[in-house]
Amino acid sequence: MWVVPEGADTTGLTNVITFPTSVTQLSIFLRVYLPDQNLEGTPLYLSGGVPLPAIESFDTATGEPAPCLPTRSILGDDSGSSDGNDTPNPGANTDGQVRFYRLGGGGLYPNEDSAYLATIFIRFKPPTHTDTSDPAGIIAAQAMVRYWSFNVYSIKITNVTACLADYQAVVAEDGFVYIVLGRRTPELLGKTEGMNFLPWGPHDEILFVYRNITPNTQFPYSASAVPVYSAEETQSADAFIGDYAPIGVYTAEKQFLESDPNPGRCSIWRGRDRSSS
After folding, report:
1. What global pTM score does this model have?
2. What pLDDT digit, counting tens, does each position of 240-262 carry?
3. Count of domains in the chain?
């Protein structure tokens, strides 16, 4: 794979990715979202059964090796943007409702709403996903997305500290997935037994991410159908993709522990006026 600026001579090259010549600092990621489970226990499990790539830098004019040293963190300055742009941010959830927006990117590479929360209770309708153990093949034409997941990030750094992958999710009798995000305490773990629980981790502030990877072009309710957030566009994802958008509430842990643990009967969800949010 060759990553070169626009206008570079790519004659004879394959797997070329170009970037604008105005970009002076570039971040390149290899993401393995979910290794096949039959690889677990093998030395290369986490990288999908193959070695990690070797990386070389070169001068595009001469083809000669060139130094390539990071000059600063991808987190950039205190504004949270490493590209120097003031990206509109919907800000934290503050009124008891948890809403999801589609962000354009930035230093943290997010596609989610950042929130300052205590305990979160999330509900959404899961899209069907590809099953790599299916003998029909890796790409199932009828699947709505190739992969979906929820991830917990620190707001300060970009490492994922918890993940709920599609195949791991417990689907309730009403067809929805319910997720509780909170501190890993014995009381909360007992309350959420049989449900989906994600630990808040050691962070004071988190980013909570919902991913859709390679949506089926015939599926109209993927995350890609949500417009990128802007100062003019303030509607959350559920205004565009309905039940396939995550929605939720946040509350103190004590209040959650005193609530009905059965998602199908949980009064949190009943009578909510979706249009009002």
Report:
1. 0.68
2. 999 999 988 888 888 888 877 55
3. 2
